[in-house]
Amino acid sequence: xxxxxxxxxxGTRLRPLTSTRPKPMLPVGGRPILEWNLKALSDSGxxxxxxxxxxxxxxxxxxxxxxxxxxxxxxxxxxxQLGTAHAVSxxxxxxxxxxxxxxxxxxxxxxxxxxxxxxxxESKSRTSLCLVRVKHPSEFGVVRLKxxxxxxxxxxxxxxxxDLVNAGIYIFNGEVFDAIRRIEKSTRLEYxxxxxxxxxxxxxxxxxxRVDGRWIDIGRPWDLLDANEIVIREMELxxxxxVDIEEFAVIKEPVHIGKGxxxxxxxxxxxxxxxxENCVIGPNCYIRPYSSIQNNVRIxxxxxxxxxxxxxxxxxxxxxxxxxxIIGEKxxxxxxxxxxxxxxxxxxxxxxxxxxxxxxxxxKFGCLMGDRVKTGINVSIMPGRSIxxxxxxxxxxxxxxxxxxx
Length: 406
Fold this sequence. Notes:
With about 400 residues, the chain is α/β, with parallel strands linked by helices. It folds into two domains: about 1-220, Spore Coat Polysaccharide Biosynthesis Protein SpsA, Chain A, CATH 3.90.550; about 230-400, UDP N-Acetylglucosamine Acyltransferase, domain 1, CATH 2.160.10. It contains seven helices and 39 strands. About 50% of the residues are buried.
């Protein structure tokens, strides 16, 4: 059985982070989302993965090449992003038998994949849906079952009758391509794979299986921080041999520290957290739990990082605070840059998504900062604000609204 990963979309709800990279390449626990999924597939015994790519496809191709561990990788370009069903249709001439399909914005475990494949084979299903239970089913496709048989999928119902939802992972055979040819565009002007599945449900033979294992859906910015915390908590963390830890640095395990990284005197690092390769941490800084710092990052004197993702090549050199934030690549935060993560009224933080302020459900959330942003000294950034790639924030500014690059 081959696997197909749908990785062609832009991920507009995660701008400005996706302004310069496809969503599956956003980092969680020091690795791109897509890498976690390829690892799960490889460890589950899959030997070939077809990646459907489109938006900024070069980022994916250059990073993974033609092989990942035991997986052979083939790329298929979806020239127009016309929805999930259209994305599945572009692999038709590459598929011979049953095949697994999954959305590229999930993080799943080996256990989940193995369980789904085994249940599919044991039940001799023609089509199988992976099902999970969630806290907010109205945000997903709610599935109704009669035994193992799927009888209905309701997309984002206002009053869901169940918390059992479509996980975005499927096992199909060739029937799905005929069903895709019969569907029309949805209200979003896209061809939806769930519309094709509804046709297959009417024919019978669509089974749904609630399986165990890690399943994380990353659709909105705050999902990245939630996913990062879960993944870091579950990772095997440890220091590389080629690490320089100076006297009077304090490291509260578990902490991952990559090769070539220097931890300077006075640094206090509280695990679990992840620090990549060739970083310079300190002196006299505080890295708090669930922070993920990628490669070639500089965290300097009197800087505090709390529960944040700091991407490669970024400098946060002195007298700054970054809380519950996601900071892009090659940013430079001037001295005294403070990212607030808590509203004065203690209400949940609102984040601008598609030009609309959206409740995050989080009391604490800081900044979404795109790549190559620079801030002058003594900049204050209010909770939930976004700064787009290549923007410059003038010294002494208070960022109260979204900042776009010129």
